[in-house]
């Protein structure tokens, strides 16, 4: 390989010293990275989270777990338009309501830019849910094992290792050293493509308190003996992640250590990394992984030692994470469709023309429901209100359109996302952006993957002066429209 694996093998097949590495590290790094602008931990109602996820819609599921940890994570959007990740546990988890609340509150006190922070929880009846910051750029597992456009670069892999070590050091310093089932799915990437450690792993994930749900081959040996996770167990899991980063595969530690002892590092190292790192850097990373994977917990390094070892290895430190990852930045320009461009320019006339031409083709099932109930006077009045609203909308009589659509919505016989979108645009036309935003959000609750609902939210947010949130909504609309066009 271009990185000189033959030389590397002769240097790093045997760990150099099992004692703790140098603890020299500036503790201020933990302090300066704290996420001081994050909202404080709060308790949510089930209704709030149901609305945020469009009724826990299947389309909003971002991850699911198997029988050992039967819970689901949804993406959602709160009333203030903040995007969140909502973890919904199975009904047998956390039977003790008070224990769940106390654990969530403790984790919810943490605030750091290396974490996907816990924002709140919900504990109504049998329901147990956690609410965290939403990370828009997938997991380490996706980018490392299932990449599509490009493999992760060596410099980015080193950055992941350092940021993860800093996250664990912050947790240790704040009394939350125990992390349950640390693996590549627990590391997520934010809007800037910076890696963060999911806060979910700081809480027990099941009724029986089991801390590992992955293959036993990756479980710390002392956990297999005692059934308890310790701070040293977390370091062992960190070592397995270093192997993941080095190999681009999920290799069992015992097999990896055999390869290291046999000086067979070419098999261990990801071929996609050819020429990207020096012998010395490769030697140090393998040595560090070996020390983390020591059988005896006391022989493993601590988090400060990990940081001290990883800082000198960092490459391309002035290059942003999203550039290293090849991910378009949320604030960067991205290709827009005619509707997306009209929304960015806040060209309400152009948006009106597009919506008028679109009609009601996205209201699936609406016509059938009406045909069944045509015989009632109430439904006939409802239809008339809708027709009046549509006529006023077409004639650009937007005040009248709002009035008629409001009558239609108030009856509640039929739910139409298109009516909410049309009323949203009508509100924008008469300079009522907050009402427009509310309607656009409601349209997305009814139809979670409808791109036009996101686009109208963007326009309303722009009108309210909330530029950053508007850009995010605009990008969401672009992604949803692209996915829709791909499917069709």
TrEMBL record:
Residues 59-314 form the Protein kinase domain. This is non-specific serine/threonine protein kinase. It comes from Heracleum sosnowskyi. GO terms for cellular component: plasma membrane. It is found in: Cell membrane. Belongs to the protein kinase superfamily. Ser/Thr protein kinase family. GO terms for molecular function: ATP binding; protein serine/threonine kinase activity. Its EC number is 2.7.11.1. SUPFAM superfamilies: Protein kinase-like (PK-like), TPR-like. Keywords: ATP-binding, Brassinosteroid signaling pathway, Cell membrane, Kinase, Lipoprotein, Membrane, Myristate, Nucleotide-binding, Serine/threonine-protein kinase, Transferase. Gene3D superfamilies: Phosphorylase Kinase, domain 1, Tetratricopeptide repeat domain, Transferase(Phosphotransferase) domain 1. It catalyses: L-seryl-[protein] + ATP = O-phospho-L-seryl-[protein] + ADP + H(+); L-threonyl-[protein] + ATP = O-phospho-L-threonyl-[protein] + ADP + H(+). GO terms for biological process: brassinosteroid mediated signaling pathway. PANTHER family: SERINE/THREONINE-PROTEIN KINASE BSK5 (PTHR45863), SERINE_THREONINE-PROTEIN KINASE BSK7-RELATED (PTHR45863:SF2). It is a lipid-anchor.
């Amino acid at each position: 390989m271009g990185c000189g694996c033959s030389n590397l093998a002769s240097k790093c097949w045997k760990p150099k010293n099992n004692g703790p590495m140098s603890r020299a590290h500036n503790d201020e790094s933990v302090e300066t990275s704290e996420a001081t602008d994050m909202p404080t931990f709060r308790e949510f109602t089930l209704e709030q989270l149901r609305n945020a996820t469009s009724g826990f819609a299947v389309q909003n599921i971002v991850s699911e777990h198997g029988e050992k940890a039967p819970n689901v994570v949804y993406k959602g959007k709160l009333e203030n338009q903040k995007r969140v990740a909502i973890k919904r546990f199975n009904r047998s988890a956390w039977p003790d309501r008070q224990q769940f609340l106390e654990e969530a509150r403790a984790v919810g006190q943490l605030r750091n830019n290396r974490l996907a922070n816990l924002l709140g929880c919900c504990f109504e009846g049998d329901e147990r849910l956690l609410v965290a910051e939403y990370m828009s750029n997938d997991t380490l597992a996706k980018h490392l094992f299932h990449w599509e456009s490009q493999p992760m670069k060596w410099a980015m892999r080193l950055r992941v290792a350092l940021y993860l070590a800093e996250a664990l050091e912050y947790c240790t310093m704040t009394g939350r050293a125990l992390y349950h089932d640390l693996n590549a799915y627990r590391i997520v990437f934010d809007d800037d493509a910076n890696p963060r450690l999911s806060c979910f792993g700081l809480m027990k994930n099941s009724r029986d308190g089991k801390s590992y749900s992955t293959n036993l081959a990756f479980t710390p040996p002392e956990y297999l003996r005692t059934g308890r996770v310790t701070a040293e167990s977390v370091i062992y899991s960190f070592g397995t992640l270093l192997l993941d980063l080095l190999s681009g595969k999920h290799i069992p530690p015992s097999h990896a250590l055999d390869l290291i002892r046999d000086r067979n590092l070419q098999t261990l190292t990801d071929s996609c990394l050819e020429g990207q790192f020096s012998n010395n850097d490769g030697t140090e990373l393998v040595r560090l992984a070996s020390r983390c994977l020591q059988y005896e917990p006391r022989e493993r390094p601590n988090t400060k030692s990990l940081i001290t070892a990883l800082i000198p290895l960092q490459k391309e430190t002035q290059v942003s994470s999203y550039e290293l990852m090849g991910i378009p930045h949320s604030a960067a320009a991205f290709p827009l469709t005619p509707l997306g461009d009209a929304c960015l320019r806040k060209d309400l006339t152009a948006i009106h023309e597009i919506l008028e031409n679109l009609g009601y083709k996205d209201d699936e099932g609406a016509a059938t429901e009406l045909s069944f109930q045509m015989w009632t006077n109430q439904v006939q009045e409802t239809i008339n209100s809708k027709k009046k609203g549509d006529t006023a909308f077409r004639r650009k009589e937007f005040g009248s359109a709002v009035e008629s659509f409001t009558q239609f919505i108030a009856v509640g016989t039929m739910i139409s996302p298109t009516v909410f979108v049309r009323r949203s645009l009508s509100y924008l036309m008469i300079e009522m952006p907050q009402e427009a935003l509310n309607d656009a959000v409601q349209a997305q609750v009814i139809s979670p993957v409808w791109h036009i609902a996101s686009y109208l939210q963007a326009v309303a947010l722009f009108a309210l002066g909330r530029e950053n949130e508007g850009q995010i909504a605009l990008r969401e609309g672009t992604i949803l429209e692209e996915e829709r066009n791909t499917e069709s």
